[in-house]
Amino acid sequence: MRSGAGAFLAVLSCPVAVMFCVAVVDQPMALLAHADLAGHRRLFDAMTHVVDPIPPLAACGLGVAGFAALLGWRPGAAAQTLIACCVATLIAIVLKDELKFAFGRLWPETWVEANPSLIGDGAYGFFPFHGGRGWSSFPSGHTTLVTAPVAVLWARLPRWRPILALPVVVAVAGLFGADYHFVGDMVAGLYLGAACGAGALALVREPVGTGFAPPP
């Protein structure tokens, strides 16, 4: 019962936190990043590339695991954790793209296709199902992709949590410093990535008493 209540509160906290950011935090923080941190944009941009290896590694890892399974391999606990990381990442790729289209949020600055933006045009808001790369700021894909596998490892390797948090911190700091995303975008990405990780763990978790595991 307690775990169910905790999960409900966690889900409820997401829209509350995002709406607070949209109403109060996003615009002033984007303006601050543009005004005070623009001179360090190259460094912050480099920090966001910590995410780049994650999708190809996830695709390759799941492909190798699937091929090995065809040859009779059955994953142990460590391999199940890695498979869950791959699954969480690939789920995150699909969900973040669909949500970007659904919410249609403008970016803090003009990046692609001469899109309207807060900094460039004073434009701010959501335009659901508008489509186009210029209307795809929410949620942050980078934040989602780095959080999804980390959420799996966070649950399976609690002793390593201080180290596991580092890539998420680096990516989020880079996105904020380069003014690539609003704070609310990144908050939503954190929640979405965590949800993908939890879902992937549920898929690979060994059922109790069902004979799922191979005999010793």
Work out the number of β strands: 0
Distance between the termini: 35 Å
Task: Indicate the proportion of strand residues.
Answer: under 5%
Task: Please mark out the parts with pLDDT under 50 across 5 or more consecutive residues, or reply none.
Answer: 207-216
Total number of helices: 8
Q: What structural class should be given to the helix and strand makeup?
A: mainly alpha
Radius of gyration over alpha carbons?
19 Å
Query: What number of domains?
Result: 1
- Calculate the mean pLDDT score and round it: 91
- What is the helical fraction, as a range of percent? 55-70%
| Largest sheet report | none
Question: What would the principal axes of the Cα set say about the shape?
Answer: globular
Q: What is the succession of H and E elements? A: HHHHHHHH
Keywords: Membrane, Transmembrane, Transmembrane helix
Protein name: Phosphatase PAP2 family protein
Domain Phosphatidic acid phosphatase type 2/haloperoxidase: 83-204
InterPro entries: PAP2/HPO, PAP2/HPO_sf
